User: Fold these one by one.
Assistant:
Number 1:
Amino acid sequence: MRSISMKKIAMVAAVVAVLALTFWAASAPAAGGTAAKKVAASEDNAWRQVTACDQRKTVVVEGYPDDRPLPEAKARQVAALLSDLMKYCSEEVRARITREERIYLSVNGSPFVQFVPGGPLPLLPVQGKVPTPREMQIWKAELARTVDEGNKLFHNSKLGTNGISCDMCHPNASNTHPETYPKFQTQLKKVALLRDMINWCIENPLEGKKLAEDDPQMKALEAYILTQRSGKPLETGKH
Ligand code: HEC
């Protein structure tokens, strides 16, 4: 009876110790918390958070306020660390660079462990998520739908006002040369992107109203034209 309760006490103590350690590691500073941000106002407690483009890797740099850019050497260190962390692919990784230049990592919310730059990652890199056949099917179908929409617009005079459509001068997107953009265009007297020339032709030969850059119709036209020239090597600036 007595030995069982001692065991219980020891177990509870161990759990409390692990929880306290995890809390210590995770709490200072909490990701993006507004309360913690306020603390950053004072230089001593300052920290700045940088997030990678997959939004699943964050680096907290202690000792640097978030109201001004990091010095170049620090910025390079953060970029190199984030690039290293991308090896964890779709996993959630949080890193801290302390004032003493020590680096700690936590993968998927696990307790922070120390990481020595240049050395191996402290945890086994997790294999990147391979798309499922169903995902691949959806992505392919979505692209095909967009290209098809572009195909229809390219063969339809509704983009203009005079009954003329793109295909009448560019059958099968011929002479559109998307692989040569960006390049200087004399009509526009500036470096143009493919979409600038699409709009130029909508406004001139078709006498229509130009499309906004993020108009889904613009995306569809670009998707169609580029797909027609798929496999052509890029030759930026070629005339
Ligand atoms: C009346 C004929 C005509 C029609 C219709 C027309 N274009 Fe053009 N397009 C031209 C001419 C001419 C040029 C200029 C070629 C150049 O200067 O590079 C051109 C250039 C382009 C270019 C750049 C080609 C390059 O070599 O850099 C693109 C892209 C383009 N057109 C897309 C379209 C689209 C999209 C439509 C329909 C909205 C369209 N065009 C309708 C005649 C036409």
Number 2:
Amino acid sequence: MRLLAFLSTVAVCAAAVNRTATNGWGSTPSQRHYINATQALAAINAAVDYSNSIGVPNDIAILDPSSQLVAFLRMDNAYLGSVDISMKKAKTVTYFNGLFPSYGLLNRSQTMGDLFGIEETNSGLVVFGGGQPIYDYDGYFIGAIGVSGGTVAQDIATSVHGAESIGTTITM
Ligand SMILES: *[C@@H]1O[C@H](CO)[C@@H](O)[C@H](O)[C@H]1NC(C)=O
Ligand SMILES: *[C@@H]1O[C@H](CO)[C@@H](O)[C@H](O)[C@H]1NC(C)=O
Ligand SMILES: *[C@@H]1O[C@H](CO)[C@@H](O)[C@H](O)[C@H]1NC(C)=O
């Protein structure tokens, strides 16, 4: 219940997007929208361009709203450990219908936070930055991007660049 209350709060805070039109609450199958391979590749390319501009080799994952992998790239010299982290950042976004970036869970997952331990559910979530929801220009939630390889701030900036190359995203 507390998690649901939290999600409602987040949804209200980010009311710029029409969430009834997404794959989340209130949607029907005919309303669902999914990122396609062309869009996913464009988002990867934008994230790669940004990664190169800041000199950070990244792992970049794109999931559709069902949390299935659409595209992935491990840039030359990107950490092997970041392969899993990038995917789990994106999964953290898609598992909660794209209502918040991965860092939306950071504060409340700390000791004494009301979502303490949530990162251990679902075979592993990532509660720090670098996972961003992707909304298309009509406000439909179409997928998520996860980036890992730099500092958290760099990963957030890179994932936002990727998402915004093909649509919009949410920052908190
Ligand atoms: C949101 O999208 C749904 C589905 O397309 C539509 O029925 C509804 O009128 C929209 N709501 C607003 C406030 O735009
Ligand atoms: C992928 O989605 C974009 C944006 O909606 C669209 O313009 C493009 O035609 C789609 N590509 C394919 C192959 O369906
Ligand atoms: C987390 O808490 C810090 C310190 O109170 C605050 O500055 C920050 O905005 C919070 N982050 C989120 C995503 O709520």
